[in-house]
Each structure stands twice: as C-alpha cells, then as structure tokens.
Amino acid sequence: MQIESGVSLKPYNTFGLPAVAHTLVRIASDADVRRVVDDPKLGRASKFILGGGSNIILTRDMPQVVLKIEVPGMRIVEERADAWIVEAGAGENWHDFVAYTLEQGCFGLENLALIPGTVGGAPVQNIGAYGVELKDRFESLDAVDLVTGRSVTLRAPICRFGYRDSEFKHSLAGRSVITRVRFRLPRPWQPVLGYLDLQRRIADTGITAPDARRLFDWVCAIRRAKLPDPAALGNAGSFFKNPVVTPEQCRDIIGRDPEIVHYPLPDGTVKLAAGWMIDACGWKGKSVGQAAVYEKQALVLVNRGAAIGSEVMTLARAIQESVYGRFGIRLEPEPVVV
Ligand SMILES: Cc1cc2nc3c(=O)[nH]c(=O)nc-3n(C[C@H](O)[C@H](O)[C@H](O)COP(=O)(O)OP(=O)(O)OC[C@H]3O[C@@H](n4cnc5c(N)ncnc54)[C@H](O)[C@@H]3O)c2cc1C
To answer: Nearest C-alpha to atom 50 of ligand 1 is from which residue?
Structure first.
C-alpha cells in the first residue's frame, strides 16, 4: 500500500479535468484494502474508488481518500468443455486484457475492444459495445468490503447488471472494492455481428465469417473513426445513456419527429438515440467555456483544453433542458459525477 498527499488527478481522468486528491492510496491487493480498513485514520475517512478515470467527471478537489486500484495479473483459470474461465486483476487495462484473451486463443470479448478504463471499472456500469455487454461473458468477481474488510466472491445475480448499470452504482457504490474479475468465454466461439457498423464491414470486405482477430481489428478501426482519442481530446465517451421508452411514448415522438433514430428492444420497449436528439436540438460543436459537444458525435462532450468540471456540468444541464423541452425526455448522464 502506497500513500501520497496532494495528488493532481488530471492525469488520472480521461476528460483531463483538474482536481486534487488530499490523500491517494495505491491498492495492489486485497490485503492493501484491508490495511486501509484497519488503519485508524484511513479506516474512518470517506473514500472514493478510482479505476482508469474514464467514466468520471471531477467537479471539485477530493477530500475523500482516493483508492487508486492497481491490482495486477491476467491468467486462464480453467479450461472447461463449454468455456474458458479467464481472470484479471482489477487494475489491468481493459483493452490489454481483451488483447491478452485473444492471444491465448480465448474468444468472446472482441466486440468490447478499445473501451478505456480498467478491468475493475468494467462491471460497475456493465460496459457494452457492438452487441455485447460484460454481463454476457461474466463469471464472478472478488471484492473487499470497505466497512468490514471481508473478501467476497460475487456472481451475476448479486451484481444485478442492467443497461450501463449494476449494484456497484447503488447499494455497493463506494462500499465494495472490486479486486479481480473472471469471465466465461464460451466454446465453441460464435461471432456477434448484428450491429450495423459490423454488417457494413461485411458488405464492404465480402468477408461473411470473420474470425475473432478480424472482428477485434474491425471494432478497433470503427471506434477510432468515431470516437475522439482521450489522449488527444479529453472526454468520457458517451455522456448520456440512450433513454428507453414505452412503445406509446415512442409513437408519440415519431408523430412529431418522424426521423428519430430508435431501436425496438426484445422486451417491447424502445431505445432512443440520445446523440440524435442532442444533434436535433442543434448542440453539435456548441460549448460552455472549454467544454464542448464533439463536432462528429453529439453524444460525446469534450475538453477543448482547459475545461473545468463545472463547465462540463453547465453544458450537460443545458443539453438536458433543451432535449426535455423538445422531446419530453430527461437524459441521464452516463459518467459518475464526483
Ligand atoms: C473514449 C471513450 C469510449 C468509451 N466507450 C465505452 C463503451 O463503448 N461502452 C461502455 O460501456 N463504456 C464506454 N466508456 C466508458 C468507460 O470507459 C467505462 O465505463 C469503463 O469501464 C470505466 O472504467 P474505469 O476503470 O475508467 O472507471 P472509473 O472511471 O475510474 O470509475 C467509474 C466508476 O466505477 C467505480 N470503480 C472503478 N473501479 C472500481 C473498482 N475496482 N471497484 C469498485 N468500483 C470501481 C468508480 O468509483 C466510479 O464510480 C468510454 C469512455 C471513453 C473515454
């Protein structure tokens, strides 16, 4: 366990927002978490768990003790007839882990390539992309309770995964430190190719049965073309969740805005494209101070250089109000606002 004081968090959040952690503790194991819990001063202090900082908006300095999760390790745990069980430490970079699984010949995470952040941060919002969600490949995770110091292994029902959601955003938020995650990668492997962008690749290349490596390369190329690289332009990916509405609400909106982009879901509800709604309200390229709506994709807010958290949140609220005014839909931010 390594303790530091007065640490700038600017390099530790992909939006590049300025904030200082009064105390930052680097966590490399379950035992480190227990040391924090047992420490007379640290144990009592309120805490914030930090992964790769790719899904947070920092609006102020942090009086809480920041636990920066750096638990290492990647390994194949078990080879079953119907699946590989693969495990990674919560501090591992998510994309590096996806690449590792492919190198080992264990397929199934390729649609989730290039999502920033850590392995431990991934279950918190049940990351998803190109037709696959973390919950589709999840086996179990290890976590340490910040009150009792006890280590537990949790399976999917306790994690309560939902669309960009899990119990780690609710009753377990700030309470449970995820230290390791295990994935079940099914054998034989079946590619997930339903997404429009992937169908376009199939049409363009004539490759109707891509292998996992090619699918990984396609997903990386599609993402690089669509999303700003946080190293070049600070951002937190999609800033708002795509709202899910009833068929009646959707019909009502289509009556007024026939072109609205929407996707019917298996349960009868309909997902609306938040980016389309923001664009329809004329937000692309608009800014508040140094916080702006990305010119190429209205769902992404970016840092033009020296943005501060309050500018990002002022811009976000203005977008919410105008989308509500036109569509009657309240957009919900995807990142955690701190
Ligand atoms: C360019 C870009 C593209 C993105 N694309 C996608 C996408 O396609 N799909 C998608 O779902 N998301 C996407 N995201 C969002 C983000 O990458 C993911 O949500 C990622 O999993 C966050 O992980 P993190 O380690 O950075 O978490 P952080 O941002 O550090 O933390 C996020 C939340 O998780 C908690 N947390 C982090 N680590 C732990 C832990 N070990 N134990 C307990 N709680 C923890 C934090 O306290 C915080 O509440 C994108 C972000 C960017 C910048």
So the answer is: 237
CA angle 94, 95, 97 (to 5 degrees): 65
Give 181-204 pLDDT, tens digit per residue. Answer: 999 999 999 999 999 999 999 999
Distance 79 CA to ligand 1 centre (A): 29
Ligand 1 close to Cβ of residue 13 (< 6 A): no
Distance (Å) from CA 249 to ligand 1 centroid: 30
For ligand 1, is residue 55 a contact (CB within 6 Å)?
A: yes
Confidence of residue 211 (pLDDT cuts 50, 70, 90): very high
Phi-psi region of 275 (alpha: psi -120 to 50; beta: other; left: phi over 0): alpha
Which atom in ligand 1 lies closest to the alpha carbon of residue 90?
41
pLDDT at 1: 82
- Ligand 1 atom nearest the C-alpha of 336 is 49
Distance, in Å, from the CA atom of 26 to the CA atom of 70, rounded to the nearest integer, reads 7
Residue 64 and residue 50: Cα distance in Å, rounded?
11
Q: Verify whether ligand 1 is closer than 6 Å to residue 233 (CB atom).
A: no
If you measure from the C-alpha of residue 95 to the centroid of ligand 1, how many angstroms do you get, rounded to a whole number? 12
Question: Mean pLDDT over residues 172-180, rounded?
Answer: 96
DSSP 79-91: E-SSEEEEEEETT
Reduced DSSP (H G I as helix, E B as strand, rest coil) percent helix, strand, coil of the chain, to 5: 30, 30, 40
DSSP letter string, 23-80: EEEEE-SHHHHHHHHHSTTTTTS-EEEESSSSSEE--S-EEEEEEEE----EEEEEE-
Q: Is the beta carbon of 124 within 6 A of some atom in ligand 1?
A: yes
